[in-house]
Design brief:
This protein is about 10% helix and about 45% strand. By secondary structure, it is mostly beta strands. The chain has one domain: Deoxyuridine 5'-Triphosphate Nucleotidohydrolase, Chain A (Distorted Sandwich). The strands form three sheets. Strands 1, 3, 4, 5, 7, 9, 10, 11, 13 and 15 form a ten-stranded antiparallel sheet that branches. A three-stranded antiparallel sheet has the order 2-8-12.
C-alpha cells in the first residue's frame, strides 16, 4: 500500500472518487487531511455540544463527530491519527481504519487523561486522515460487507 499525496487527494476529489465535504484547503496536509470537530459528546454526563466550547472533565471519555462527510469511492482506505497537539494535552485515543466504500461523518472516541478540565472548541481540528491505496479494487466495499455506520451523521454511539 502507498499513501496518497496532497496532489492525489486533489485529483480524486475532482474526479468524485473521494469526497471530503466541506473541503477546507488549509486542512490539506502533504499526506492527508485534518478533520474538524462538529460535535462533542460526553456520554457519562449526557452532554452534547455543537457550538462554542465543550468542557470535558478530567479522567472522562468523550466522543467527537467530524464536520466533514467522507466518501471513499475508490480502491483506498484511510487511517486516523490524533493530532499531536491533543496528545500533548493528555488526550488518549485509539482510532481505526476507514474502510473502502464508507460514507458519512466520523465518530472518534477519546479520553481526557489529565487532571484538569479539557476545553474543546467546536471547529478546531482533532484528527488527521491519511489515505492508503489498496493493491486492487475491493470485491465488496464497506456498505456491502457490514455497513453498520454507513451514512452516519453526528456522534453515533455503538450499535448492537
Amino acid at each position: 500500500m502507498s499513501v496518497l499525496s496532497d496532489a492525489d487527494i486533489r485529483k480524486f476529489l475532482a474526479e468524485g472518487r473521494l469526497v471530503i465535504a466541506p473541503f477546507v484547503e488549509k486542512r490539506l496536509t502533504p499526506n492527508g487531511y485534518d478533520l474538524g470537530i462538529a460535535e462533542v459528546c460526553i456520554p457519562d454526563n449526557r452532554v452534547k455540544v455543537t457550538a462554542g466550547i465543550a468542557s470535558v472533565p478530567p479522567q472522562s471519555r468523550f466522543i467527537v463527530s467530524t464536520e466533514e462527510r467522507v466518501e471513499l469511492n475508490g480502491p483506498w482506505a484511510a487511517n486516523l491519527w490524533i493530532r499531536t497537539s491533543w496528545a500533548r494535552k493528555g488526550v488518549l485515543a485509539s482510532f481505526g481504519v476507514i474502510d473502502s466504500g464508507f460514507r458519512g461523518t466520523l465518530t472518534l472516541a477519546a479520553f481526557n487523561s489529565g487532571g484538569g478540565t479539557l476545553d474543546i472548541k467546536i471547529g478546531d481540528t482533532f484528527a488527521q486522515m491519511v489515505f492508503s491505496a489498496l493493491s486492487s479494487e475491493p470485491e465488496k466495499g464497506y456498505g456491502k460487507r457490514s455497513g453498520h455506520y454507513q451514512d452516519q451523521k453526528g456522534v453515533t454511539l455503538a450499535r448492537e
